[in-house]
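Tutorial sheet, problem 5. The two components below are modelled jointly, 657 residues in total.
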Amino acid sequence: MAMEMEMEMEMESQKPFHVDVGNLLAFNPFRSFPSLPASRDELVKECLQEGTKLVQAVADSLFNLPSTEDVDGPLVKLPPPTSKLPREKHLPKPKPPTKWEEFAKKKGIQNRKKDKVVWDEQTGTWKRRFGYDRVNDDKDIPIIEAKMTDEPGVDPFAKRQDDKKKRVEKQEKNRLQNLKQAAKIGALPSHVQLAATSLPITGTQAPPKKVTKDELGNVAGMAATSTASGGKFDRKLPGEKPAKKQGKHRKFLPVVEGSGIGSREKEQTESVLNKLISKHSHEILNVGKAVTMYNVKKEKKARNKRNQEGKSSSATNKLKPKKQLQKKTGKKGPVSSKKVKAK
Amino acid sequence: MMKIKTPRNGRVRRELEKRAPKLVETGKKTLILQGTKTSGILNGVLSEIYHLKKGGAVRFTRKNDNIRPFESGGETSLEFFSLKTDCSIFVYGSHSKKRPNNLVIGRMYDHHVYDLVEVGVENFKSIESFTYDKKMAPRVGSKPFIAFVGEGFENVDELKHLKEVLLDLLRGEVVENINLAGLDRAYVCTAISSNKVYLTHCALRLKKSGTVVPRMELVEVGLSMDLVVRRHRLPNEGLRKEAMRTAKDQPKKKIKNVSSDAIEGTIGKIYIPDQKVGDVALPNKAKGVKRERREAKKKEANERASKKHKEESE
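Model answer (C-alpha cells):
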C-alpha cells in the first residue's frame, strides 16, 4: 500500500495527461520505458496499469459533465474533440445563385409562397395548381377568341401547345446552364450528374451506325480474305473464332454443263468481256437487265389485270415463250458487233 | 451536349446524399484488403480489425496484385475502391520475405491518397486466445476509450504520425451525445521503444466507488499485437493545410415556429388541425352494446318465450 501511495505521488507530479474528452482520448507523454521488462506478461501488466490510469482520467472528466436521464442510461453531451484530424472530403462549397436568383435579388422580387390548391372559376371547385386535374389546363379550354393579330390558318390550340413546349425547353436549357455553372465551381448538388450525350451530327453525315457484336466478329475474317492465301495462315488473337467463310470467296462452276442458253460459263466470260472491251462504258445499256425489268413490269401488270378479271393461268404461259425470243435477240446484238470489230 | 442525370429512386438519392461532402464529418469508413500473399497471422489480424469495426468497414477478400501503396502508380486501384465504397481509411495487408506480416494503414482525402504508415505485426494474439468472463465482452459498435502511453509518441516523428492514424482508425463515429452505460471498451497503445508500439484491446469494468465517477478496470479481451513502424509517408504541406481546414461554426439553423421575446422568453406556435367532431370514432363500439342489436335480441327472446308458451299451452 505504501509503495502504491509513493508511486501515485510520483505520478501526480507529472499528472498533466493530454485528455481529449470529445474523442475519449488520453495521452500520457511522460512515461518512458528505458528498459523493457524481461517477460512479456510484465510488459502487458505495466501497459494495462498505465492504460487504466489514463482511462480513469478521461472518465473523471466525462462523468462530471452534466447528464440527462434517458431510457438506457445517463446521456451526456460530449464537448467537441480537441485533437485535429484531417477531413476525408473537401468542404462543401455553397451553391452559386442561379440566373433567376440574381435577377430577383437585383430587382428586389420576393418569393411568395404558393398554395397547393387554387379556386377554379370555370368549374367552381378547388383544383390543383399543377398536376393531374389542374386549374388552367390547355385541354379544358373550349373556345379561344380570335384576335386581330392572329394569322389565318394557324390552329390556336396547337399554337398554345407549341408555346408551352417551347417554354418547357427553354426552362430545361436554363436549368442545364445553371447546373453547368455550379459544376464549374465545384458545387454541383450531390444527386445530380452531368453526362455527355452522343456526339452531335455534323452536316450531312449520318450518326455513326452502331456495329453489332456479330458484325464485329466477322470483320477480321472479311479482311483476311484479301490476303493471298485467304487468311489461312494469319496469326489469330487468343479467343478469336475462325472466320465464317474461310479461304477465298470463289465460285466454281459445275464441270459438265450444256453449252446452251443457260450456260453459266458462257455468261461469266461474256460479262468479263463486256466490262473489258467496251469503250463507251457510259453508253452501254445492260440490255439483259433492262429486258428483265421490262418483263417483270409487264408480268405484274398482267397479273394485276388477271386478278381483277379472275382469268386462268393460261395467260402466263403465253408470255413465257415471248420472253425467250426477246432475250435471244438481245444477246446476239453486242456479241455479233464485237465479232465484226475483232475481224 | 450535356444531359442532366438525377436518380429515379428515393433510395439512390438518399445514398448519394449520404456520400456528399459534409460540413462536420462523422467517422470514416474503413476498407480492409490484402495483396498477393498473406500469412495466417495477417489474415487473423485483418479479420479481427474488420470485426472490431463491423459497422463502418468493408472487407475485400480477393488478392489484389496491382496495389502498391508506396509506389506512384500503384495507388489507382486503391483510389477507385475508395471511390466506389466511400471509404477514407484503408488497411492493406501483405506478406513477403523482406516485409513479413506487413500492414499499410492509409488515409484518403477526396478519394486520393493523403498519407500512409507501414507497420509490421509481431506477437499477435487473437480474440479466441483470451479467456475472460463472456458477460463483459464489449458490444459491437460502442465508442472506445483510447489511451496512448509513452514519450515516443511525442518525440519520434513516425510514432507521432502513427498515433494520429491509429486515432483515426480506432475511434468510432463522432457523436454529440453518448450514453454512459454503453462504454465498455478501451484501446491501449504503449510506445515500448522508438519504433515499436504495443496495441491492445480491453473491456472495461466499471466498479462502484464513492463518487459519481466509477473506478475503471481494464481486462484484456481482444487482439493484442506489436506494431513495428517500417515506412511512412506524410502528406505534402498544401494538401495537409487544405485537409485540416474546418468551417467556422455556421449560424444556427432557424427552428420553425419558435420565436423568442425579451418579456415572455421563448414562444412556440403549435398548429392544431381542425377537429371533425362528426367523424370521430366512438370509443366503446362493442358489437353487443349497439342499441339495434340489443332490441333485436330482446324481441327474439320474447318471441321464443311466447312460442314456448304456446306449445306448452297446447
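Marking note: Chain A touches chain B through 65 residues (CB under 8 Å). Full credit if you identified this.
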